[in-house]
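Quick start: read one record
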Amino acid sequence: MKQKNPRKRIDLVGQKFGRLLVLQFIDKNKWRDSFWLCKCDCGKEKIILGKSLKNGDTKSCGCLNIEKLTKHGHNKNGKSSEIYTIWQSMIQRCTNPNHKAYYNYGGRGIKVCKKWLEFPNFLKDMDEHPGKGYSIDRINNNGNYCKSNCRWATRKEQARNKRNNHLETHKKNTMSN
Protein backbone atom coordinates (compact mmCIF):
# COMPACT_ATOMS: atom_id res chain seq x y z
CA MET A 1 0.00 0.00 0.00
CA LYS A 2 1.39 3.37 -1.06
CA GLN A 3 1.52 6.04 1.65
CA LYS A 4 0.07 9.49 0.90
CA ASN A 5 2.71 12.12 0.31
CA PRO A 6 2.06 15.04 2.69
CA ARG A 7 2.31 18.53 1.23
CA LYS A 8 5.85 19.73 1.59
CA ARG A 9 6.30 23.17 3.00
CA ILE A 10 8.32 25.53 0.83
CA ASP A 11 10.83 27.41 2.96
CA LEU A 12 10.08 31.13 2.72
CA VAL A 13 12.72 32.28 5.25
CA GLY A 14 14.76 35.14 3.84
CA GLN A 15 12.28 35.87 1.04
CA LYS A 16 10.75 39.32 0.67
CA PHE A 17 7.08 39.88 -0.17
CA GLY A 18 6.27 43.55 -0.64
CA ARG A 19 7.51 45.17 2.56
CA LEU A 20 7.65 41.91 4.50
CA LEU A 21 10.82 39.87 5.11
CA VAL A 22 10.10 36.30 6.26
CA LEU A 23 12.04 35.55 9.46
CA GLN A 24 10.86 32.08 10.49
CA PHE A 25 8.21 29.38 10.16
CA ILE A 26 5.71 29.46 13.04
CA ASP A 27 3.20 26.62 12.65
CA LYS A 28 0.44 25.06 10.54
CA ASN A 29 -3.27 25.15 11.33
CA LYS A 30 -5.67 22.18 11.08
CA TRP A 31 -6.08 22.87 7.33
CA ARG A 32 -2.29 22.62 6.94
CA ASP A 33 -1.89 26.33 6.13
CA SER A 34 1.57 27.61 7.08
CA PHE A 35 2.10 30.72 9.19
CA TRP A 36 5.29 32.76 9.09
CA LEU A 37 6.83 35.44 11.29
CA CYS A 38 7.63 38.45 9.13
CA LYS A 39 9.31 41.77 9.73
CA CYS A 40 7.91 44.78 7.91
CA ASP A 41 10.10 47.58 6.53
CA CYS A 42 8.50 49.83 9.17
CA GLY A 43 10.02 47.59 11.89
CA LYS A 44 6.86 45.84 13.09
CA GLU A 45 6.82 42.03 13.31
CA LYS A 46 3.67 40.14 12.41
CA ILE A 47 2.59 36.53 11.82
CA ILE A 48 1.22 36.11 8.29
CA LEU A 49 -0.51 33.27 6.44
CA GLY A 50 1.93 31.87 3.85
CA LYS A 51 -0.51 31.79 0.96
CA SER A 52 -1.36 35.47 1.59
CA LEU A 53 2.31 36.28 1.12
CA LYS A 54 2.68 34.14 -2.01
CA ASN A 55 -0.47 35.38 -3.77
CA GLY A 56 0.25 39.04 -2.96
CA ASP A 57 -2.77 39.66 -0.71
CA THR A 58 -0.54 40.77 2.18
CA LYS A 59 2.32 43.15 1.39
CA SER A 60 2.87 44.86 4.75
CA CYS A 61 1.91 44.76 8.42
CA GLY A 62 -0.93 47.18 7.62
CA CYS A 63 1.22 50.29 7.38
CA LEU A 64 0.85 50.38 3.58
CA ASN A 65 -2.93 50.86 3.81
CA ILE A 66 -2.51 53.64 6.36
CA GLU A 67 0.08 55.31 4.11
CA LYS A 68 -2.32 55.19 1.17
CA LEU A 69 -4.95 56.99 3.24
CA THR A 70 -2.42 59.47 4.60
CA LYS A 71 -1.18 60.19 1.06
CA HIS A 72 -4.60 61.63 0.27
CA GLY A 73 -4.65 63.52 3.56
CA HIS A 74 -7.88 61.83 4.52
CA ASN A 75 -7.38 59.83 7.63
CA LYS A 76 -7.36 60.29 11.37
CA ASN A 77 -5.62 57.74 13.55
CA GLY A 78 -5.62 55.24 10.69
CA LYS A 79 -9.35 55.67 9.94
CA SER A 80 -10.75 57.04 6.69
CA SER A 81 -12.35 60.46 6.61
CA GLU A 82 -16.07 60.65 5.88
CA ILE A 83 -15.55 61.92 2.32
CA TYR A 84 -13.04 59.14 1.58
CA THR A 85 -15.51 56.54 2.88
CA ILE A 86 -18.29 58.05 0.73
CA TRP A 87 -16.00 57.86 -2.31
CA GLN A 88 -15.06 54.23 -1.60
CA SER A 89 -18.73 53.27 -1.16
CA MET A 90 -19.68 54.99 -4.42
CA ILE A 91 -16.99 53.01 -6.27
CA GLN A 92 -18.07 49.72 -4.67
CA ARG A 93 -21.80 50.23 -5.39
CA CYS A 94 -21.02 50.71 -9.07
CA THR A 95 -18.22 48.21 -9.67
CA ASN A 96 -18.50 45.33 -7.19
CA PRO A 97 -21.24 42.78 -8.01
CA ASN A 98 -20.90 41.42 -4.44
CA HIS A 99 -21.81 44.79 -2.86
CA LYS A 100 -25.29 44.71 -1.28
CA ALA A 101 -26.46 47.77 -3.27
CA TYR A 102 -24.85 46.85 -6.61
CA TYR A 103 -28.19 45.90 -8.20
CA ASN A 104 -29.43 49.50 -7.67
CA TYR A 105 -26.27 51.04 -9.14
CA GLY A 106 -23.76 49.08 -11.24
CA GLY A 107 -26.41 46.45 -11.89
CA ARG A 108 -28.59 49.05 -13.64
CA GLY A 109 -25.69 50.50 -15.58
CA ILE A 110 -24.78 53.40 -13.26
CA LYS A 111 -21.06 54.11 -13.59
CA VAL A 112 -18.46 56.32 -11.95
CA CYS A 113 -16.76 58.58 -14.49
CA LYS A 114 -13.18 57.54 -15.25
CA LYS A 115 -11.78 60.72 -13.69
CA TRP A 116 -13.44 59.95 -10.33
CA LEU A 117 -11.89 56.50 -10.05
CA GLU A 118 -9.00 58.38 -8.42
CA PHE A 119 -9.82 60.00 -5.08
CA PRO A 120 -7.91 63.30 -5.56
CA ASN A 121 -9.96 64.03 -8.71
CA PHE A 122 -13.24 63.29 -6.90
CA LEU A 123 -12.18 65.53 -4.01
CA LYS A 124 -11.20 68.38 -6.33
CA ASP A 125 -14.56 68.28 -8.15
CA MET A 126 -16.79 67.85 -5.09
CA ASP A 127 -14.79 70.00 -2.65
CA GLU A 128 -14.80 69.10 1.01
CA HIS A 129 -17.69 67.22 2.56
CA PRO A 130 -20.15 69.82 3.91
CA GLY A 131 -20.69 67.99 7.19
CA LYS A 132 -22.91 65.60 9.07
CA GLY A 133 -26.16 64.70 7.38
CA TYR A 134 -24.92 65.17 3.80
CA SER A 135 -24.04 62.50 1.28
CA ILE A 136 -23.46 62.34 -2.45
CA ASP A 137 -26.58 62.53 -4.62
CA ARG A 138 -27.02 62.10 -8.36
CA ILE A 139 -29.26 64.85 -9.70
CA ASN A 140 -30.47 62.60 -12.53
CA ASN A 141 -31.08 59.28 -10.80
CA ASN A 142 -30.48 57.39 -14.04
CA GLY A 143 -27.23 59.25 -14.72
CA ASN A 144 -23.68 58.38 -13.78
CA TYR A 145 -21.54 59.68 -10.95
CA CYS A 146 -19.72 62.70 -12.44
CA LYS A 147 -19.21 66.38 -11.61
CA SER A 148 -22.14 67.63 -13.71
CA ASN A 149 -24.60 65.14 -12.17
CA CYS A 150 -23.63 65.12 -8.49
CA ARG A 151 -24.17 67.32 -5.46
CA TRP A 152 -24.06 67.09 -1.68
CA ALA A 153 -27.60 66.58 -0.35
CA THR A 154 -29.40 65.85 2.90
CA ARG A 155 -31.51 62.71 3.37
CA LYS A 156 -34.64 64.82 2.94
CA GLU A 157 -33.39 66.19 -0.39
CA GLN A 158 -32.40 62.70 -1.51
CA ALA A 159 -35.79 61.28 -0.54
CA ARG A 160 -37.39 63.64 -3.07
CA ASN A 161 -34.95 62.44 -5.74
CA LYS A 162 -35.78 58.74 -5.97
CA ARG A 163 -36.71 56.60 -8.97
CA ASN A 164 -40.04 55.59 -7.42
CA ASN A 165 -41.17 59.15 -6.63
CA HIS A 166 -43.95 60.61 -8.74
CA LEU A 167 -43.93 64.37 -9.11
CA GLU A 168 -47.17 66.31 -9.28
CA THR A 169 -47.52 69.92 -10.33
CA HIS A 170 -50.41 72.07 -9.16
CA LYS A 171 -50.52 75.78 -9.91
CA LYS A 172 -46.81 75.84 -10.84
CA ASN A 173 -45.77 74.05 -7.61
CA THR A 174 -44.08 70.67 -8.11
CA MET A 175 -44.13 68.24 -5.20
CA SER A 176 -43.37 64.57 -4.70
CA ASN A 177 -46.20 62.42 -3.41
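The longest strand covers residues 20-28.
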